[in-house]
Amino acid sequence: MAKAAPQSLRKGIEVSISMAEAAMQANVDVVAAYPITPQTHIVEHLSELVADGRLDAEFVPVESEHSAMSACCGSSASGARTYTATSSQGLALMHEILYIASALRLPIVMAVANRALSGPISIWNDHGDIMAERDTGWIQVFVENGQEAYDMTFHAFRVAEDHGVLLPYMINFDGFILSHVIEPIVYWSQELVDQYIGLYEPMLRLDTKNPITMGPVGIPDIYLETRKAHDFVLRESKATIVKAWDEMEKLVGRRYRPIETYKTDGARILLLTMGGVSETAMTAVDALREAGLPVGLVRIRLWRPFPFEELYEAVKDCEVLGVVDRCLSTGGPGGPVASEIKGALYHKDKRPKVVEFIAGIGGRDVRVEDFQDMAKKTLSVADGAPLPPFELVGVRE
Amino acid sequence: MSESRLPGWKDLTLGLAILEPMSARNNLTGSWRSERPVWDHTKCIKCGVCQMYCPEACISQDADGYFQADMDYCKGCGICSRECWTQCITMQQEEV
To answer: Domain range holding A339?
Structure first.
């Protein structure tokens, strides 16, 4: 490859394709994936890159996502840098193996194009698929745009393969509204990628010359301790996650934090979002600020490990927080993100009230005006209106 | 086993991997046994069916060609007795 100046390439490219090319730049050894619906262009493009000889990797087109994640576990256990991608029903079919990947401490990187779960049958965007995988023990981030999706692929390998972490890493990016759009994305030079993530050096690997057993039975005498160790390392990984973002900032100049704030100074109310709708929400906040309303925005990037301290720091000074969920916990408390936020704030003496919105379910558009409306409703609670029950934004009576 | 001999969560290997090959041998499963297999050499034809069926792989052949179970690992499941072609293996109650 010709020596390129750092960040010399700015390409107009589909986000999924850029993520596949990021995986190629990360020099993955194995891609195991179910190649048809529900899937994105990520693995389609990776299969082309392998077939064309541009990426020296094993592409394993398996018969289901259950097999995809199983094959990923096997390849990662043997010491190969392993990547896959999935979405909605495919993620659901991986469910039981997701727990095994993390319990075995296998640094698999997976892109998840977040989409609704059936039924009714849907291929459109929301966060129903990933919220069902919340407790699988993976590192999970939500990205807001194509550049972040591309950048986070390198961050994922860097963090997952760190010997102080060794956990699988999910990059959540919104299906269709991110996965299928074309955005201008600044590519890293290969030199920068190599400098940032280096080679994967497994701490343990399956090797017939030095046989070990991975995944033994955890009898009641030991299962609890393994769960504690897993929880501990996932929580502790936050330091490595932030450090790797710091180093990325030095290399490419883009700054990523576990929690991001936007125009929060002097805000009486804040909206809270996660993922691709955040940029729409920012546009709404701009308009409301111009109209003189004291509103701001908080965005969650790091979902697991959950950044409790950073979240509290971001929301502690507002009067009311309007949480915008992308998933409905049917028959439960409303939205899963709002539940976690309320749990995180419950024991604080000083805490905002929480108004809950559930928006953009199954691909329903969430427009700038919708966010303005949510912000105004949140502001009315700050002005003394009674706290409403959670609202399914835009639902027809 | 006493509580203090079990490892704490900080002492576990990565992902609970077992780094020593064949360490399952340290687990003497013979303590589970309530009945032991006893071979009647007058009936035994040395066919080896008992050895093939033993789920613990703890049956071996001695110098004379007869079969015996390693009592460190024999759980007393009785499969050898059930499968024996000549019914030469009887299960006898263990006495304490």
So the answer is: 259-392
Question: For position B83, which CATH number holds?
Answer: 3.30.70.20
Give the chain A residue whose CA is nearest to the CA of B5.
Answer: A221
B21 close contact with A: CB closer than 8 A: yes
Contact between chains at A226 and B12 (C-beta distance less than 8 A):
yes
Predicted pLDDT of residue A320 = 98
* Pair A244, A331 in one domain: no
Structural domains of chain B, count: 1
Kindly state whether B7 is in contact with chain A, defined as any CB-CB distance less than 8 angstroms.
yes
**Whether residue A247 sits in one domain with residue A138:** yes
HSE-CB of A96 using CA atoms within 13 angstroms:
2
**Looking at A203, A234, A252, which one is the last position of a domain?**
A252
pLDDT in the model for residue A133:
98
| Structure tokens belonging to residue A45 | 């493009």
User: pLDDT tens digits, residue range A112-140?
Assistant: 999 999 999 999 999 999 999 999 999 99
Q: Is the pLDDT of residue A4 over 50?
A: no
Give the long-range contacts of residues A193-196, CB within 8 A, separation 24 or more.
A193/A25, A193/A26, A193/A154, A195/A251, A196/A154, A196/A158, A196/A247, A196/A248, A196/A251
Q: What is the pLDDT of residues A260-294, one digit of tens each?
A: 999 999 999 999 999 999 999 999 999 999 999 99
Which residues of chain B have a CB within 8 Å of the CB of A137?
none
Residue B88 lies in a domain: yes
Give the closest residue to A259 by CA, choosing from A242, A243, A244.
A242
Percent of chain A at pLDDT above 90?
A: 96
Distance from CA of A216 to the nearest CA of B (A): 7
pLDDT tens column, A14-73: 999 999 999 999 999 999 999 888 889 999 999 999 999 999 999 999 999 999 999 999
Chain A residues touching residue B7 (CB < 8 angstroms): 222, 225
Question: Going by C-beta distance under 8 Å and a sequence separation of 6 or more, which residues neighbour residue A80?
Answer: A29, A30, A58, A200
In chain A, the number of structural domains is 2
Give the nearest chain A residue to B1 (CA atoms). A221
